[in-house]
Amino acid sequence: MACPQPPQEAFPIDPLALAFNYPGGRVDLMARRLDGAPRDLTPARASLARLLVARRCGCNAAGIKIGHNPDGAPRIVAPARALSLSLAGRDDLVAAAVADGPLGVDIETIGAPVEPAFNVLHPAERAALAAAGAEAHAHFLWLWTLKEAYVKAIETGLSREPAEIEIRRLDNLSPENFSLDAPASFRIFDCDRPVTTALARAGRAIIGGRAAMVACVVLARA
After folding, report:
1. For residue 110, what are the contacts with CB-CB under 8 A and spacing of at least 6?
2. Tens-digit pLDDT profile for residues 125-163
3. Interior CA angle at 34 toward 30 and 217, to 5°?
4. CB 67 within 8 A of CB 75
5. What is the pTM of this model?
């Protein structure tokens, strides 16, 4: 049974709402800043997921049901659609994405610089980060959001060793100039093997006045 069409005002405009087409599909991504930083972001992530799925499917958000796979990854229970769902949250920000293929999304707030966690980086990434100077913090967040998005897409989460995954940059842009809206110039390697992606984006975004790093990875279907 088709979902009933909601009134237009059921879908308020969010601080960040993007759609990217790729061969064979489309990814829709939304992010929202909350009023405060709750200890548990689960309800906020689920609420945003229902809104996003409703927009994608043309349904009333009240009819959307979100469940979880045995490994804990979110999935769309109703309506029945061949769509992948991924959720993320940090501090007072939540993000959700849906796509036609295996998908991962991640978000990190960009706050005061902290010492990067070099142990989660591939040796080549450590060398690049050591040379990044004052931009090391933004560069690390860019790398980390992409790694998290990728391990969500392959449905392993951080049970995988992050240092085995390399994000290889193909340009010399400053990390401060990485934009989520622009196709990124990088490749993902897993245990030194290139990963075939249908779409991969990562960069800065302003969400409700807060700077964030957002990454989205859709794997190419075998």
Report:
1. 137, 138, 141, 204, 211, 212, 213
2. 999 888 888 788 989 999 999 999 999 999 987 788 999
3. 30
4. yes
5. 0.90
Sheet containing strand 186-190, edge to edge, reads 165-169, 186-190, 193-194
Domain 15-219, what architecture?
Answer: Alpha-Beta Complex (3.90)
**Which comes out higher in pLDDT, residue 133 or 87?**
87
What's residue 196's pLDDT? Answer: 96
141-167 as b/e: b if 16+ CB within 10 A: bbbbbbbbbbbbbeeeeeeeebeebbb
Tokens describing residue 88: 């993320």
20-26: long-range pairs with CB below 8 Å, 24+: 20/199, 20/201, 20/216, 22/198, 22/199, 22/218, 23/198, 24/100, 24/101, 24/198, 24/221, 25/99, 25/100, 25/101, 25/198, 25/218, 26/99, 26/100
Helix axis angle, 123-130 to 136-153, nearest 10°: 160
For residue 43, give the 3-state DSSP assignment: helix
- Beta carbons within 10 angstroms of residue 81's beta carbon: 15
Instruction: Return the closest-CA partner of residue 216 out of 134, 105, 121, 76.
Output: 105
Q: How confident is the model at residue 8 (pLDDT cuts 50, 70, 90)?
A: very low
Residue 129: its H or E element: helix 123-130
Kindly state the DSSP code that residue 179 receives in the 8-state scheme: B
**Residue 160 one-letter amino acid:** R
> For the chain, which residues make up each domain, given as ranges?
15-219
DSSP symbol at 184: -
